[in-house]
Write a structure and sequence with these properties.
The chain has about 200 residues and is mainly alpha-helical. The chain has helices spanning about 10-25, 30-35, 40-45, 50-55, 65-75, 80-105, 120-135, 145-165, 175-190. It is built from nine helices and no strands. Helix 6 (about 80-105) crosses helix 8 (about 145-165).
Length: about 200
């Protein structure tokens, strides 16, 4: 009878993610094994190569679109819905950069490693979800599909940049709430119906 695994693959990947997030591809399998409380042999039984472990540990998780828009859906006004959704998207990008920056530093990195579902990148998934959300029935009278698509692209790109700026120290996370409200307000004034038009 085979022995039961004493540690799950997810626990091993969590230990590896913590090491790789700090030290990049240079993290040692010895340090990962020690953090996980196993031998290096266990790592290589489960993940045949260090590169395999690296890419498995740092694989981006898909955005939880349902959670992001469920929180936004509790807001009473459409502009506030966008602000709440933007805050959720920014939080996702913050967590994403913890793994993608080290991931992209690996010499064997290929852009396909950023795909999280059906070959789509997180940005593409969020863009499509936000565009769908902007085409809700009440907006259909004011906003074309092209407007919703362009607005979603602008919002997702701006939030992606904001998360990156925070990561490299060019923007303080404590200022993010005000930045999101200001960005959405500027965009919303351009999207909202104007008297006489």
């Amino acid at each position: 009878m085979a022995r039961r695994r004493s540690i799950s693959d997810q626990d091993l990947l969590s230990a590896a993610r913590a090491e790789f997030a700090v030290r990049g591809a240079e993290a040692s399998t010895r340090a990962i094994a020690k953090r996980a409380g196993v031998s290096e042999a266990v790592l290589f039984q489960r993940f045949k190569t260090k590169a395999g472990l690296f890419f498995a540990a740092l694989a981006p998780r898909p955005p939880d679109v349902a959670r992001i828009f469920a929180a936004a859906g509790r807001e009473p006004k459409p502009e506030r819905v966008l602000v709440a959704a933007a805050a959720g998207i920014l939080d996702y990008f913050r967590s994403l950069f913890e793994v993608t920056l080290p991931l992209m530093s690996h010499p064997d990195f290929q852009p396909g490693a950023l795909a999280v579902g059906n070959g789509h990148t997180p940005d593409q998934i969020l863009h499509a979800a936000l565009a769908r959300h902007l085409r809700y029935p009440g907006a259909a009278k004011r906003m074309s599909a092209a407007d919703a698509d362009a607005a979603a692209m602008l919002i997702v790109a701006a939030l992606h940049s904001l998360a990156l700026y925070e990561r490299i120290g060019l923007h303080r996370p404590s200022d993010a709430g005000a930045a999101i409200r200001q960005m959405i307000a500027v965009l919303w004034r351009g999207l909202a119906p104007r008297p006489g038009r």
